[in-house]
Amino acid sequence: MSDKTQKMVISVDHVSKKFGRRTVLSDVSFQVPSGCVFALLGENGAGKSTLIRGLLGYHRFAAGSVRVCDMDPQKEPMALRRRVGYVADAPGMYEWMTIGEAGWYASGFYAAGFLERYANLCADFTLPAEAQIRSLSKGMRAKVALALAMAFDPDLLILDEPTSGLDPLVRRSFLESMVDRAAAGQTVFLSSHQIHEVERVADWVAILHEGRLQVVAPLEDLKTQVRMLTFSLRDTLLALPAELDTLQILHRSCEGRSMRMMVRGMTAEIQAGLERDSNLFELKVLRPNLEELYLGYTQPVDPQANATEPQRVSDVA
Q1: Does residue 145 sit within a domain?
Q2: What was the pLDDT predicted at 302?
Q3: How many domains does the chain contain in total?
């Protein structure tokens, strides 16, 4: 299905948010298509949790608008939460309850079948029903929160750092289950800074840095259209090849005679021209992984790298 006809589960339109004088989000816009795993990446403090809480109607944005499951989170918060499962980075629960009691209490807000699915999820996560919430480790609490959020089979699952505290085997199994949910037509929106984990499951990626959206695109498109270019210079006083002027340089850095660039627009002809330049050696043109893409869009440009000024992109078609 093409992006032009695919239903959008989340639409964020020129959203901004401030806390006091500090700008947390600045003119952020993107859409999340249905039936995908959409990953929001960013360092701690980038604005990920602030954006998520606004999507759920917990606070108003200073500017812009959002639609989630074709609803306004501010006008229809209760209806929205019946369709959206949410796990916060530090989920709050009634400490005096047992794991089983937490599921029983939550089941009153949802349709029949919740308790059965909750029990199955607790079994998958090896959660003992009689254990009290207050006695649980961070990882166990995260599992309970995930079980509660998934048990009513939501149309949209929003997860803020969902694998924090999970052991490696459970983390891997959980992430694989997110792919299964997307394959079944549901949508998963997850926020994380665990880039190597996200790469295995994400269909779409958005990178948020210091409150600004750096890029949003299908992950495979990013990997196809962007290249990591590395080379060394025999004479650092000579001008760089003219072919570099035809590229969109997203990031660059240098160390001594060695240069590293993340670029768009690389073609076989441009690469051949660079290979003919006698001042360049050890030239490599590589397909980037997600970690390299992330660093390229978030790291400051090395002022010593004498190349064309970089250009940030807010979207990749």
Answers
A1: yes
A2: 52
A3: 2
Report the CATH number that the domain containing residue 245 is assigned in CATH: 3.30.70
| 22-32 residue pLDDT tens | 999 999 999 99
- The answer to whether residues 211 and 233 belong to one domain is no
Predicted model pTM: 0.85
Structure tokens at 136: 């649980």
148 & 283 share domain: no
9 vs 204: CA distance, rounded Å: 13
- Which of 175, 191, 221 is the endpoint of a domain? 221
CA dist 126 and 166 (Å) reads: 12
- Under DSSP, the state recorded for 104 is H
Residue with tokens 């000579």: 238
What is the 3 state secondary structure string of 165-216? CCCHHHHHHHHHHHHHHHHCCCEEEEEECCHHHHHHHCCEEEEEECCEEEEE
Say what the pLDDT of residue 5 is.
Answer: 64
| Structure-token pair, residue 105 | 């209490």
> What is the H or E stretch that residue 263 is in?
strand 258-264
- Domain region containing 114: 8-221
